Every structure is written in C-alpha cells, then in structure tokens.
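Q: I'm a student working through a structural biology exercise. My instructor gave each of us a protein and asked us to get a predicted structure, then write a short paragraph describing it. Mine is Polyamine transporter At1g31830. I'm not confident about reading structure output yet, so if you can add a plain explanation after the tokens, that would really help. Here is the sequence I was given:
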Amino acid sequence: KTTYLLHSYSVTQKPRVPTGNSPPPPHPPIQTGHVSIGVTAGDPPPSPARPTNNIRKISVLPLVFLIFYEVSGGPFGIEGSVKAAGPLLAILGFIVFPFIWSIPEALITAEMGTMFPENGGYVVWVSSALGPYWGFQQGWVKWLSGVIDNALYPILFLDYLKSGIPILGGGIPRIAAILALTVALTYLNYRGLSIVGLAALLLGVFSILPFLVMSFISIPKLKPWRWLVVSKKMKGVDWNLYLNTLFWNLNYWDSISTISGEVENPSKTLPRALFYALLLVVLSYIFPVLTGTGAIPLDQKLWTDGYFTDIGKAIGGAWLGWWIQAAAATSNMGMFLAEMSSDSFQLLGMAERGMLPEVFAKRSRYGTPWVGILFSASGVVLLSWLSFQEIVAAENLLYCCGMVLEFIAFVRLRIKHPSASRPFKIPLGVLGSILMCVPPTLLIGVIAAFSTLKVAAVSLVAVVIGLVLQPCLKQVERKGWLKFSVSSHLPDLMATCRSGVASFRILKTAPARVNRKH
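A: Happy to help. First, here is the predicted structure for Polyamine transporter At1g31830. I'll explain a few features afterward.
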C-alpha cells in the first residue's frame, strides 16, 4: 500500500460568531491532524464540545468486521445470483462486480473518510461540495435505505430458525420474537461501539468458519465443468434478480464513514480496514459459490435463501448443515448491529452539524447516540412488515440516489480543492477520478431501469419527502420550536474554502471550541 505524505498548514482563526449572539472570547490557535472543507455560512450556534472521557476508539480488526457486516455478513443471500443466471455468471459477477462498484466506492470512502474524519461521513462530504441542502438529502436517503436494510435482519434471523422452531413461522409468536430481537440488539448498540465491534468480530469468525470447512471437504467432489453452466433449464437470465442480488451484497462500503469520528487514528486505520474487508467480503462469496455449484449437481430452482444449509448437509453431513444454519442466523445479528451503529451515528453527525435538532447529538454514558438509536430502531420495527424482495429493491434504488450525490461531491471537491490535504488520496487526477465514477454510475442507471413501477414510485415518494423535510426543519429552527446547534469540536468548513486555505488543524485529543473564520 502506498503511504501519501501530505502537508498540513496551521492557521490562526478569528473567534467564532454564533448566529444571533455576541461573539465568544477568542481562543488560541488550534493544532490538529486533519483537513476538512465545506458546510455553509449561517450555521446555528455552537453546542458544547462533546465529551470523550472513557469512550474507546475502534481499532483496525473490529473495524474490518464492522465493514464486513455493513457490506456482507457472509454468503447468506447470494443464492439468488445462481438461481437468476447460473453458476458461470454468478461466479463472474462476484469477480467483476467489485471492480465496477466495490473498489471505486471503497477508494472514495477511504479518501473522503480520512479527509473528513467525523461522524456523519458522506453527509459532510456532500455538504462540503454541494451545500447543506443536498447534504441533508444525502443523509435522508442513506438513513432511510439503511433502516429499510436493517428491517430485513430480524426477519431473516427468524426464517433460519423456523425450520427448527415452527412456531416462529407466523402469527403473534413471530411478531413478539421480532420485537424482542430488535430490543435486545438495540440495547447492545446502546452499550457502546466497542462492544458492537467485539461482537462483530466474534460473530464474523463464527460465520466464516463453516464455509472454510465446507470448501476443504468439497475438494475431492469438485467438477469444474459445472461452473460453466448459464441458466440451465431456465428461459434466459433474470437480470433484475441477478443485478439486485449482486448490488445488495457488494454495496454499503461508505456506511462505515458515519462512525469515522469514533475510529482510532482514522487516516491510517480506515484505509487499511477497507482494504482487508474488501478481500474478506469477495473471498467469502466466491469460494462458497465455487463449492456449492462444483461439488453437487445443479438444480437452479433450489438456489434460494438458505440453500447453503442443504449444500453443507450434502457435502459434510448434518453437523455442517446445522453449523451453517446457526452461522446464517447469527450473521443477521451482526449485520443488524453494524447497520444500527452506522445509522445512529449518522444522525448524531447531522445533529452536530446543525442539520437535525440538537437532541440527536446527545450521547449516553457509554458514548452512544441514544436518541438516534431509538429513532432508527423505531423505523426498523415499522418497516419489518415489507417482503424481502420489496425491501431489497427499494433500498437499492434509494441507495443509488445517495451514491450519485457522493460521486458528484467527490469529483467536485477534486476540481475545486485539488490541493486540500487528503491523508489517503486515490492516485488519480481529475480526469481519472471522473472516469473511475463512470462505470458505477452507468450501473446505477441499469439498476434503476430494471426497477418495477411500484418500487420506483415508493422511492420517488421517499425522495420527495426529503426535499420538503429540510425546509420544514429550517422553519422549525427559525421559529425556535426545537434547538439546533453546531458542535464546537468540529472544524468550520466553508470558511476555509472561501479563504483559499487548503487545510487547517484541529485538536487531536480533547475537543475544544473551534473558531470560525469569516
């Protein structure tokens, strides 16, 4: 890996002048370790600096598994790619698709996440490049797609258990189990990000191990010619199912950016964790597909969710099948924990930037955004009635809307502020950066074209709600019905851009008031 040496310039800033208040007393120049550019003038008054006492930062290994669960969680859910297109296209898809989508998204996340190492992630990126209105729209569609995504996991967890516990198949017992599971996992998020990281690590190891065992056992039974089949005994390829399955299982690399402020030494930790997680995710898909399609005769119609359990039983016996089933169930717990953390810290980051009421920036004694956690958990419960395919298609389309804004923000910041400090920088110029964003943007168009009218209509309504919601919140702020403020430990962004300064420093350890240069 290449280490990029970047220059950092120290500037003395004038006191911050809160909106509608007298200026606070000046503070001495601040020394920092990263550079940020971007929100707008006219921010709400600063809120008190957030406490950092006893809040443990996330290191590389837990962060790798948090990313793993944000994106993947293992090969559970990829069975539809074989059903839709056959073994050959499924294998090629998980090899080629990362180059079209996953690698560009992970690289952009590494560059922008280290450029803006604060909670809120992609919301701050888009605000920096396009202004707070579009930053809010980014936050709205990404949070909504994340909550929709998270509504899947309690359902899938129970689907894996219902074969052994039939009472969980429907009715009041199933509803009660969904609520109980959501409450239990939400409480783990409340107890702290370090606990969530450790849980993700342990669950990740438990989820991956059975597939390693299955791959070794299957070696004598492999017949490579089986990998060359395309849609055997089926009329053509179901491109909608195929593309949505690939996309759903290989996106969300940027979600980890919303907890950048909780990462230990993010300028080095975040790029490394993304690199290791990318390898882990791709390998955790390719080997199970090679094993499942090469070791047993192909029957495409059987390749539905949960089929890896049957493959494990056929290859290694009942014990391996039960292990895979248990791993699938626990994997859904890991994905819920990781997604909940990302969603709740995103709301905290937006509140710290004055985009949401100040109450969303409140932390528990464990350092977690308890209001954001409760808000996200409520959304999960309300959306848990949707079907699996409707959830996947709707969240994919909303996610695509947010990714278009991210690509635009990435390119715009490269053009407007080429010399700004970037602790990790993709080794491409402006033209190369644009070309890198072309294939994933075209893919977004293809996925949108294959969306059903119902999914497109629901997604459009969600986008329109966001377009109206931001002006409504501004009106609430002007009326004084709710308190909005900008956290004083964050750097002021747009002022630095306007003054032509490419970088400035903020305090590395304890937070302090950051002055805004006018």
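A: Here are two points you could use in your paragraph. Confidence is low (pLDDT under 50) at residues 1-43, 495-518. Residues 304 and 470 are 41 Å apart (CA to CA). It's a good idea to check both against the output above yourself.
Q: Great, thank you!
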